């Protein structure tokens, strides 16, 4: 059982003992690395404040590092031959995965083996930390607990038989060695800021005391603080205020050692948002064009997975491409990657190469196929081609068969070297550190050979990727005055100013979070705080009390709303009276950007007009009705696309894209009506003959797609069946109509509007029994006749056909071909001319109005109208690919964009009927 409570040592006495240096023999252990670093900096500042110009570094380190140092001291002493080998975290993970996979719950029964192994490893550590590992499998629990007990037994047997020890059991091993004189021990061991002493930790401290080490505890100094509780309308407003507060406190102080902290409880989920908003307020000019690179005045405690960094992502992508086919998106990024040799010298050729590959490459590419595509692209990038060829040759010679992890690591390193990784340019500080971390990860992967047998390429890559994803990393950048912390990282730290955000009744105190693999009753019996609501509440209350004395100024804040939900303050701070802060309104990045560009802005919403055609002729354009549709949506869009030839980069997609499916649909209906011709023929045709007509039309449509899109036969068969089902359902609707004759299908026409002439193709024109013609346009997505109405009509195609048809058009309709939603939607001159189509009372006025709007659009385009004027703000711009050219996001505020989205809602199918 643990011994008596440890004697205390005040902080000033601790610093006085540390000032004695090595002679004092003082070692300080902290619960985590951040606290150890902060305490070391504080000690250094105290020494400097006393006028010291040089002093010995204080021996301050995290508890886990202290335990590992004791183990290493024993390892290099006469005890070394008897000690087991310490496993790395990756080796532990691999052993847990093997134990789970070999059990009755393994063999594919678990969909997330790696996640289950990580949770099991955490449960194993928790069980030893609270010394309840002996009760595993003996204490009644659920199926998860039974499974974990089985996995743990297998893991224990294997580690013992192979003489391995893990981090969870290392303190117990070290505790048994402390009485040996070969082990180096401090004179005084100080446990700093340990709010909780788990049983295993207490036992180790007791063993230190029994071995003659003086063991004391020390806590941070507490001070009288000015405390404010601030409510905010939203979490975003709260974070924006915290950023302004931090900047105000930083600018008001001349203390170079100022310590400001912002605690964000859900920092894991909001890290990117927090970083963006803080940078926007604290260093708004850092991202302006031409701004010098500077260190930001804040640091976020939580790193991100190594796989999120571009350099590591490129390394893993190169390895994957060398061994198997990858998605085109990955191949595209690698072609443009700065981490392959020659990237700077071939920057423009590689960009052109990527654009060319997007037009011809398949959705998935092997390295061999990528090299072939590069060779046939017509774009010269010789350094890239040479490097990828070297990778291909190395992969062909060395990436087959089964190998030990250390052999795979060697081959992966050689493969990256063949690519010239990490590139020819000099890496910046962040990239250099990331490259070092990548090399560490590769070395860690190589060490898996101690516990893992020979594996194949796919397994090796998967294990390496998982290892990198588990490594949280953040490049070091010097001490920053503002620290952004999670709840646990803030424990034990002292500040000049502290802001704790997000303290709602839902978020604080935290809910109980017992390990799922250990019976909850066993965890409660052991006194694990997080295992019960009572324990979690007591722990979070202690943390809250610590916050109230951790700084001279303390702000506790909470949002009052989350979308439409009202939120209340945490009961742990609700007793504090609400306060207020008068914060400066600092300029944001957008404000500085406007100020910077004001002197060089040139507003020009008009380009040169089109060259006039000879008298009596129209200006001929390519693009058809799309020119007018773009002009209606936004004049700049029409000018950029049809005058400047601005085109988006293509992206290969698996199967057929929306445009190809639309072409299939049109070809299907043309094939059917080219045979049937009339409604009478449809009605008279036997079912078997009609099925044959549909089959021929579907086969013809798909055969064309196979030629143009290299559609595989298995997908072609599915498309033929889909088209046949669609046609059968549609023809049921056609049989409800009055007699008609299909006068034209896919009929090419010359179309005129405002002095412009386009070529168009009318999907279908029917001669109606009651006289006149009906224009029908096939659609499979969302459509509404409202898109023809008003100024700047959204979809002017059918109106353009109607006013240029030549024959008397008396009805226009969308034919919506969608399974379960077949219908005709549109307008007609005569009542019931088409089923489900509304009669338009003043047909001639409708056609005249259409012609007026179309002529106005054509005239404006011919005149060179090019202003950035989206019809419906965000709705028009949401899927537009021209934003980098028009920069509409700089013209419209976020509020205007939101308003535009709200105004654009409601144009659902069926409106206007």
Commentary on this structure:
The chain is of the alpha/beta class and 913 residues long. It folds into five domains: 7-80 and 172-218, Rossmann fold (3-Layer(aba) Sandwich); 88-166; 228-303 and 481-566, 3-Layer(aba) Sandwich (Rossmann fold), CATH 3.40.50; 305-473; 740-863, no CATH class. 46% of the residues lie in helices and 13% in strands. The protein has 34 helices and 26 strands. Strands 20, 21, 22, 23, 24, 25 and 26 form a seven-stranded mixed β-sheet that branches. Strand 6, helix 8 (199-210) and strand 7 form a beta-alpha-beta unit. The protein is elongated, with a radius of gyration of 36 Å.
Task: Please name the defining characteristics of this protein.
913 residues; alpha/beta; Rossmann fold; 5 domains; 13% strand; disordered C terminus
How far the N terminus sits from the C terminus, by CA atoms, comes to 81 Å
Write down the domain tally: 5
Number of strands: 26
Question: Roughly what is the average pLDDT, rounded to an integer?
Answer: 88
Q: Percent helix among the residues? A: 40-55%
State the major sheet.
Answer: 7 strands, mixed
Based on Cα principal axes, name the global outline.
Answer: elongated
* Percent of sequence in beta strands: 5-15%
Which structural class do the helices and strands define?
alpha/beta
The count of helical stretches stands at: 34
Radius of gyration: 36 Å
Name the poorly predicted regions. 893-913
